[in-house]
Specification:
With 116 residues, the protein is an all-beta fold. 0% of the residues lie in helices and 54% in strands.
């Protein structure tokens, strides 16, 4: 399984971006899909998770601003990011987990830069 993240870019404070994570195969079998980010000099952190049943969880820092969603027909997970702040800057990675096989898959990352 390959995950291809896209949609990053440079945006001003208060702007919006939508990230996409396209899987090479069906995402039906993934128990969870999530977005993570890593800022320069910091550890990678969890941003948002969506389960196969559609349950969503968010980091406190992005609640009310970010929305994670999945389109099973397009085998794609999205992260809609609104009201962006400079502290949202980092490389964003998507991740998929399949519990039955213990499979954990990461995308290659897409850069998000929010200017002040």
């Amino acid at each position: 399984v390959q995950l291809q993240a896209s949609g990053g870019g440079l945006v001003q404070t208060g702007g919006s971006l939508r990230l996409s994570c396209a899987a090479s195969g069906s995402i039906f079998s993934f128990n969870t899909m999530s977005w993570h980010r890593q800022a320069p000099g910091k550890q990678r952190e969890l941003v948002a998770t969506i389960t196969s049943g559609g349950n969503r969880n968010y980091a406190d820092s992005v609640k009310g601003r970010f929305t994670i969603s999945r389109d099973n027909l397009k085998n794609t997970v999205y992260l809609q990011m609104n009201s962006l702040k400079p502290e949202d800057t980092g490389v964003y990675y998507c991740k998929a987990v399949r519990i039955s096989t213990g499979g954990v898959y990461w995308g290659q990352g897409t850069q998000v830069t929010v200017s002040s």
